[in-house]
Amino acid sequence: MNSLFALLPLVIIVIASLLVLLLEVFLKKENKNYLGFISLFFLIVCAILYFRFWNEEFSYFKGSLVLDKLSLFFFFIFAVAVSFVILLSMKYISLQDANHGEFYALLLFALSGMMIMVSSSSLVIIFLGLEVLSISSYALAGLKRKDKKSSEAAIKYFLLGSFASGFFVYGLALLYGASHSTDISGILDYFRSSPELSLMATIGLGLVIIGFGFKIAVVPFHMWTPDVYEGAPTPITAFFSIGPKAVGFAVLLRIFLYYWRITPESQAIFWLLWIISVLTMLVGNLIALRQTNLKRILAYSSIAHAGYLMVAILARDGSSLLFYLAAYLFMNLGAFAAVIALSKKGKEYLELDDYAGVGFKYPWIGATFTIFLLSLAGFPPTAGFLAKFYVFSAAVREGLVPLVIIGVLASLISVFYYLRIVVYMYMREPSREIAIHLENPALFLVIFLCLYGVLQLGIFPGNILLIIREAINALPF
Amino acid sequence: MAHFLFFLLAIVCVGAVVGMIFSRNQAYNALLLVLAFAALGGIFGLLSAPFIAVVQIIIYAGAIMVLFIFVIMMINLREGIPPEKKKWTIYLSAVLAFILIVELILAARGSFQALTGPGGEEIASPKALGKLLFTEYLYPFEITSILIIAALVGAIILVKKKEEE
Asked: What is the CA radius of gyration of chain A?
């Protein structure tokens, strides 16, 4: 297999987005849904190609393109996330006045950025992929062009995101200056071979962490998250809460799985991540208690989940991180799907008061939403419970007991605001009438698949754990 | 000849920047900046780095300047921004300027020791650069094309005319 064939999936995604852009000109406004189906078709083709790559290890363009099992696993996560987001948005964008054909094209560009990032070990390529992802995300956040909040979200995301890119590039420059390499393995070799801790390289690594901290929304770099999540079109918010987060953790995993092994005495970076993790879990959950807007609650909840994921990085455990991301994908997209279901033309129901009585009026939406919220809170027998269990037990094995205690306390706090939504849905008298569009088969398909994912991962996690273990064991160290 | 040209360009460059700092008219500022960039491009050319010289003029004196002029036109400030009143910013900028000067002197001393002559054609020529770009760095080079089209599409969708329904 030559290097061009290895590039084929990426090329397919880029061609798909260009095709969508081209067809957008010729399609009538009512027929724009076809663009979504075209994007889905190309996604499936691409996923089949990647499926064939599973048992073959490749490295092309001098390590710029690495198709190992880790990147393939992440690619499947992205493909599922993006196809769910496409299904969720088909009805939504025509109801909420964001019906531009460019919607799908930008989504596919963002996907190609994520694919570039996970399948590379060169930090320059990772930076380019990050920019492709970020620039498409900024535009996606502002797609509800008549809505002031959406424009605000776009400009805030743009400003803070460019700032974060600046941090990342500066850190990259320092790392290159110290180690004369832009490749992750080259940089880590430098860390291993240098006799004492190099100040320049450590600061560089810290700046790279800060740059990614913005993208994965960890405290204290989370300020943009609630506003952007609230303003962006809801399917895009769902995408933001899983896509950039998963890709950021993929890169951190590539760096740190190896880094911890070669520099066990490196305290500065360890404590930096420790403090970030603790702050993220506590601040995310505590601020969520006071929110009344569903999208803001889910925004703070996604911040808190980034904290739990950081625990997995600190515990040096790749497999629990991957399992958590897979579980988070299903439960979070499911929760957002339920929020999207409660909307009608030109109006979304996002306040907690709107949810009073929903559980009896729309029993299916209420019941599935409850399951997703319980999973996010970490109740058995859902995926959320097992995910937290694996992460925290890995941390205990590494002796990070104080971190685990804080994490468990933080997730106890989170139970309150997740259950508050359930209480509103089932135990409050509706104060105002809500009417929603129920003819939306694509959305219910997503809810069903997410429900299946949450229960499958929660009750029979064996298969996916096998795949994850294979992906982690195939890493070169 | 080379020395004469260097000092001529250096004087033009520094003079343009000084003039830019003291002028209060934004349009003059922008034009003086073009002059400084063009002189810098000439200096790069003298250092036998033709590619950087041309890029300096095309990107900075061309593209970035057009951007500046557009911003100045859109904001349309009649009179300049009033001088900063706050005391502490002046002190802070004095300290930062001092640090910058020390850094520049240290860097210059270091580079004078390392420097034996210009880097030579084989590194800085457009041919060598193109060869590297299309062999070793082909993949990142092609990624930038995705980046640019994503940015174009994003910018156009956000600013195009809102259609009435």
From this structure: 21
Per-residue confidence in pLDDT tens, chain B, 165 aa: 778 888 999 999 999 999 988 887 778 888 898 899 999 999 988 887 888 888 888 988 888 888 888 888 887 666 656 666 677 888 898 999 999 999 999 888 877 766 555 555 556 678 888 888 888 888 999 999 999 999 999 998 888 876 654
H or E stretch at A224: helix A224-231
Q: Position of tokens 């060869």?
A: B131
Q: Report the DSSP pairing between strands A58-60 and A65-67.
A: antiparallel
Q: Does B144 touch chain A (CB under 8 A)?
A: yes
Asked if A100 has any chain B CB less than 8 Å from its own CB, the reply is: yes
Contact at 8 Å (CB) between A319 and A411? no
* Contacts with B139 from chain A: Cβ below 8 Å: 7, 60-61, 64-65, 125
The class (CATH top level) of B1-82 is mainly alpha
* Residue in B83, B73, B68, B79 with CA at minimum distance from that of residue B31: B68
CA B50 to each of CA A344, A366, B53, B58, B123: distance values in angstroms, whole numbers, following the listed order: 61, 67, 5, 12, 11
- Please give the ipTM for the structure prediction: 0.89
Residue A109 near residue B153 (C-beta atoms within 8 A)? yes
